[in-house]
Amino acid sequence: MASNCELYRKASIGTSLTDALDELVTNGSLTPLLAVKVLMQFDKSMNDALQTKIKSKVSFKGHLHTYRYYDNVWTFLLEKAVFKTESESVQVDLVKVVACDAKVVAH
User: Fold this and answer.
1) Is Transcription given among the entry's keywords (predicted)?
2) pLDDT tens digits in sequence order for the chain, 107 residues long
């Protein structure tokens, strides 16, 4: 279940936060327990912000190369995917989409 909540740690903002926390723990400015609490708050805040602050809608379609469902997380690899918003359309050769149930993540 923990992996569901940690989806955004792999994004650049999450890796930057993790690197900064690691440095603070290494030099003794922060305890490991407090660093873990900060990461847990980051996970919650990212999920909350994406649910309440983002109003844009995106639709996409493509050729389904592979899919997997594990631990309440869906992973899809799409080939020749097209992403559409109200104002633009973007095509990519290969994209990985990771999705989880927001109700499960909230707990």
Assistant:
1) yes
2) 444 567 788 888 999 999 999 999 999 999 999 999 999 999 889 888 888 888 888 999 999 999 999 888 889 999 999 999 989 999 999 999 988 776 655 55
CB 9 within 8 A of CB 43: yes
DSSP state at residue 51? H
Contact present, 77 and 65 (Cβ < 8 Å):
yes
Start-to-end C-alpha separation, the chain? 10
Q: Please name the residue that has the structure tokens 């389904």.
A: 64
> Which of 107, 90, 77, 100 is closest to 4 using CA atoms?
100
Q: 89 forms bridges with which residues in the sheet?
A: 84
Q: Is residue 8 located within the same domain as residue 29?
A: yes
State the residue for tokens 């592979």.
66
CATH code, domain with 71: 2.30.18.10
pTM score: 0.63
**Total domain count, the chain:** 2
